[in-house]
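Archive entry. Fields below.
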Amino acid sequence: MASASDNTELITAHSLREMGLAVLSKLGVPEADALDTIDSLIDADLRGVPSHGMRRLLWYAQRLQDRGTNPRPDLRLLAQTPGTALLDGDHGLGQVASKRAMEIAITKASTTGVGVVTVRNSHHFGACAYWAELALPHDMIGLCTTNGGVVMAPWGGTTPLLSNDPIGVAVPAGKELPIVLDVATSVVAGGKLDIAASKGENIPLGWALNSHGLPTTDPLEGRKGVLLPVGGHKGYGLTVIFEALAALISGARFGCDVISPSNTSRPMDIGHYFQAISVSAFSSVELFKSRVDALIRQLKSSTLAPGTDRIFLPGEKEFEARERHLKSGVPMPGEVLEQLRILTTRLGLSTK
Amino acid sequence: MASASDNTELITAHSLREMGLAVLSKLGVPEADALDTIDSLIDADLRGVPSHGMRRLLWYAQRLQDRGTNPRPDLRLLAQTPGTALLDGDHGLGQVASKRAMEIAITKASTTGVGVVTVRNSHHFGACAYWAELALPHDMIGLCTTNGGVVMAPWGGTTPLLSNDPIGVAVPAGKELPIVLDVATSVVAGGKLDIAASKGENIPLGWALNSHGLPTTDPLEGRKGVLLPVGGHKGYGLTVIFEALAALISGARFGCDVISPSNTSRPMDIGHYFQAISVSAFSSVELFKSRVDALIRQLKSSTLAPGTDRIFLPGEKEFEARERHLKSGVPMPGEVLEQLRILTTRLGLSTK
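PREDICTED_STRUCTURE:
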């Protein structure tokens, strides 16, 4: 096993997958569902987004053990039109409903040009980028958003009433890398505060308010208070809209009625929104991709600001990290690996 | 005629409409198209967003006189599927193509649950909110974005290569006001720099860079340089995505190939994206609206941060401004009125 900086170890994606599948299988999750779930988590680690990576398996496992998450959901299509569907996630892992929902959106888009599928009664689905990217092999633009645990206040307020709903969008390119945006509506994702806390580091002012509504540099205090929306009223406005798309329209829990993620014995019942847009409904696919490439090259031709080495497109750093980590192994913090090993031992699984 | 603070005059929406219709009619725009255009501009003034209001008529008129904008476009449907369409705006006023495109999106959504219409060969369409709101009487969620004149650099760069593509979304509510978001992907819209300049005011650091790529507080210098994206890489990422949706997929000019808005003799050939989502494809409309109302009331229940009087939902300030201005008259800066009067005199129209 190779070693990286500080206490991080480099693990192959293969052995992480084996470990993850064993854990979920032991907790009653069917193999195909376990594979979708673990692949979405490992993909986040590969892309250099550990806040949505295998560290989340610890939480997922606790929820499955405490029956807050249903290991064998019976996904049901509650409504559909030629271009839309509403799926009930039956309190299962978010990835299980998300895989099905995005596939339906893609199928709809192949005949009606655009497909929208919303989901209710679901859980955390990992990173948005993973689901948006499913559209790419179909020459479609993929888009998704979700609500989640309550971490933000409305702009001008201090009470945690909203999730920092993220958006993911993937746009197919030709010779260049696809454009893949995945951003939360807070200045930073809550996972970044957790990582700072686990490293004993401070956070910059402007990321969060403490439970008294005052600016804080302590990540643990910030987690007890609220994350601040990106761009003030703009990030607040976007999260309200994403809440409408993901939760209000699907019949999921919304706003402060979402069950706390740390309440591991009760379903969170959050909602998701998935959309696929077929490029061929508007353009020849080849022409479109050449235009995407041309925009990418235009942007890369920019004069650089002082201190900048290079212009990146959304998702480009993550594609490069994925390629690097597929060769080197996935960097996993020692304490996360330790907790994963304790979990596998507790579940009576052999540790590799 | 009532008077307001400084040199602002309060004009009735009716007399602004008469003036606007006379100008566009004289410049060869058919009456129905002129009405759509003027109504979108007056609506922005009514909503307290003068950057997208009647001051734009001066620019529209110059473009029509210089033949950069086609007064009588022949809108053509270039492609369609059950859920999507592509419309050619034939270099006309943006409002003319936008009205038609949003209507088609709504019609599509009424049978396929969701409708997406993109537009090429178009111009400035006023404020996004106006088009998104067209979905509301149909119990649909409306959404739109557009590209435009080049005002932003990619994140990490200093060359103007992108528009600060805005997004507008309207969500129908029950007893509460609809939620209407309309935000640009820059920290502030370029129009705010123009207004600061016209008042001889400075702008805060963080709004713009000058033509040397350095921070500036001079709005005119900022207009020669680049606007800064909201939330750094997040606003940059969003504008790249909106560029893909509005311009890349429609076949419009994109990135730095958009013709400068100040080149009044050449079509800008920008693109738009319109989407309508039918609430009834997912939920009973009544239930959905009661859930929107419940979220609004949750948010308004927040403890207030120091210095805040009240929690606002996106669009709420603008609805209140509209109601106020419909009674009081529309506030119009003296210099804009003066220029509009010079224009009407030049065109040989009687000034009222």
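CURATOR_NOTE: Chain A has a mean pLDDT of 95.
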